[in-house]
Design brief:
Strand content: 15-25%
Distance between the termini: 38 Å
CATH class: Alpha Beta
CATH superfamily: Response regulator
Radius of gyration: 14 Å
Structural class: alpha/beta
Largest sheet: 4 strands, parallel
CATH topology: Rossmann fold
Order of helices and strands: EHEHEHEH
Number of helices: 4
Low-confidence stretches: 91-106
Mean pLDDT: 80
Strand order of the largest sheet: 2-1-3-4
Length: 106
């Protein structure tokens, strides 16, 4: 019997409504979803659970998301995990700040 392995996604977002909507979307796509509400929780869950992919909601100013991405890329246990940045319509101002993340850490 072949066991089907479900990919685990870590979803980091500080907005409850956004978490719910994105979690449902990811589960519909077949992911097992673990959620975190902030940088500290997200980094801890990434270290502990070794997800297959991390989805980070880019907030309106990028202030919480960018430090998390930098922390993930500088952590030996997490740097290999792909990161997908989710943005809302109101986060256009943070787009330029993404380039500020040191690309050597990616």
């Amino acid at each position: 019997m072949n066991a089907v392995r479900t990919a685990t996604a870590l979803l980091v977002d500080d907005d409850a409504a956004s978490i719910q909507a994105n979690q449902e979307r990811l589960e519909d796509d077949g992911y097992s979803v673990v959620t975190a509400r902030d940088k500290t929780d997200g980094l801890g869950r990434a270290r502990q659970g070794a997800p297959n992919v991390i989805f980070i909601h880019l907030g309106a100013n990028g202030s919480g998301s960018l430090p998390l991405i930098e922390a993930l890329r500088s952590d030996d246990a997490c740097r290999h995990i792909p990161v997908v940045v989710l943005k809302s319509q109101s986060s256009a101002g943070a787009k330029a700040k993404l380039r500020a993340v040191n690309r050597d850490l990616w």
